Amino acid sequence: QHILVLHGPNLNLLGMREPEVYGRETLADLDVKLYALAESLAVRVSSFQSNSEGALIDALHNARLTCSGVIINPGAYTHSSYAIRDAIAAINLPTIEVHLSNIHAREAFRSTSLIAPVCVGQIAGLGMIGYELALRALATRLGV
Ligand code: DQA
Fold first, then answer.
1. Quaternary arrangement and interactors, per the entry (predicted)?
2. CB of 73 sitting under 6 A from ligand 1
């Protein structure tokens, strides 16, 4: 089974970006953890980061034929992107939304996710472990 992990805008700056909110670990550190877990679960993971809404949508469309599940942190597009929501609905793959921070405990605009209604579930506020939990959940769901 092949799972796409999509990292949205500004997550390339993890480690130096508001470390009091997002921690000091980098996106590369996160990907290392995910690849290691994927190996132990015997699933394949591909990770992709983009700051561009269109590139994230293209990646979702490409996943339609090559992947069996998606983990996505859409960054601030969570709160604004009908287009990413529609792309997730269109590809019909089990998708889990992950946020490093607890979006429900921050500014009011962050507590609304346009993405959550088309996802299997949402994990927020647990830092990088949230991605590992999402990967385990997808693997279980896919019967791996
Ligand atoms: C985030 C939360 C979003 O509100 C924010 O815009 C991000 C990161 C998170 O992982 O906590 O870029 O998705």
1. Homododecamer.
2. yes
**Alpha carbon distance 73, 56 (integer Å):** 11
Domain count, the chain: 1
How many whole angstroms from 92 Cα to the centroid of ligand 1? 24
CATH of the domain at 19: 3.40.50.9100
Nearest atom (ligand 1) to Cα of 21: 11
Tens of pLDDT along 66-99? Answer: 999 999 999 999 999 999 999 999 999 999 999 9
Answer whether 0.90 is exceeded by the pTM.
yes
Q: For residue 62, give its domain range.
A: 2-36+46-74+83-129
- Structural domain contains residue 144: no
**pLDDT tens for residues 2-32?**
999 999 999 999 999 999 999 999 999 999 9
Residue 7: active-site member: no
